[in-house]
Amino acid sequence: MARFTLSLPILALGTALAFPVCAAPLSQSSISDDISQSTLPEGGKFSTVSGDVTVGTSDGALSVRTVSGDIHVTQSHGPLDVHTVSGTLDVEHAAGAVEVRSASGNVTLDHADGAVSIRTMSGESTLDHAGRDIMIRSISGDMTLMLDAASKMRTIDIGTISGDMTIHLPHGFGGTFDIRLKQRRSETALPLQQSLGLTVHMGNWEKDTGNSEEVRTITATGKVGDGRDHIIVRSVAGSLKLVQD
């Protein structure tokens, strides 16, 4: 019995070495205090009402919830999930997938290597150096996208009610376009600016449901280069500008 008792510490130590305990993602919440973390090896979950959230580097899944607090992330290597009401989101580099839900806060992603999904009401969305699939839905927020050259086929799917949209295409870009916009009779300028050679069709002027003003549907389709990427754009009252960089 004595031998068995003395061997327990050794057995426990051996078990700990054989099965190391993994650190759990950091979880932290506050009402008005700011949250700041320089390094998150396992990612984290943070929530505030009005406090700002600042993260240096996150290697795991990162989840942030705020009402009016601003969010700044320098490096996110894992999945990034953000929900905010009016707080702004600024991400310098997102290597993993990004999912954002915002009411009026602006969203800025400087480098997005993974797929991006953004839903916002009136906040502006700015994506620089985006290389994978993108989905953006907005009520009145403007959108600016700068696409990088990609090694695989991707889908760019954006839609808005009244926000203005600008898409910068990289040199040598190849894609197929499926664009549908609306123009009101009182608007003298076409809601589409492009010099890619797309086929543009102007629909007939018709009475809009619930509105006395006439509107027409403008569609633009076509293939540029190898046609690999798929660009889908829908708008009710916004404009679209396609720029070949």
User: Helix- and strand-based class?
Assistant: mainly beta
Radius of gyration: 24 Å
Order of helices and strands: HEEEEEEEEEEEEEEEEEEEEEEE
Strand content: over 45%
Helix coverage percent: under 10%
How would you state the average pLDDT, rounded?
Answer: 91
Task: Enumerate how many helices there are, as a single number.
Answer: 1
Write a structural description:
Helices cover 7% and strands 51% of the residues. By secondary structure, it is mainly beta. It has a domain at 115-187 and 199-244. The strands form two sheets. Strands 1, 3, 5, 7, 9, 11, 13, 15, 17, 19, 20, 21 and 22 form a 13-stranded mixed sheet that branches. A ten-stranded parallel sheet has the order 2-4-6-8-10-12-14-16-23-18, with no helix packed on it. The termini are far apart. It comes from Gluconobacter oxydans (strain 621H) (Gluconobacter suboxydans). Residues 50-172 form the DUF4097 domain. Keywords: Signal. Pfam families: DUF4097 (PF13349).
Question: Topology, please?
Answer:
Blueprint: H1 2-18, E1 26-30, E2 35-40, E3 44-48, E4 53-58, E5 62-66, E6 71-76, E7 80-84, E8 89-94, E9 98-102, E10 107-109, E11 116-120, E12 125-130, E13 134-138, E14 143-147, E15 155-160, E16 165-169, E17 175-184, E18 192-193, E19 199-202, E20 206-207, E21 214-224, E22 229-235, E23 240-244
Parallel strand pairs: 1-3, 2-4, 3-5, 4-6, 5-7, 6-8, 7-9, 8-10, 9-11, 10-12, 11-13, 12-14, 13-15, 14-16, 15-22, 16-23, 17-22, 18-23
Antiparallel strand pairs: 17-21, 19-21, 20-21
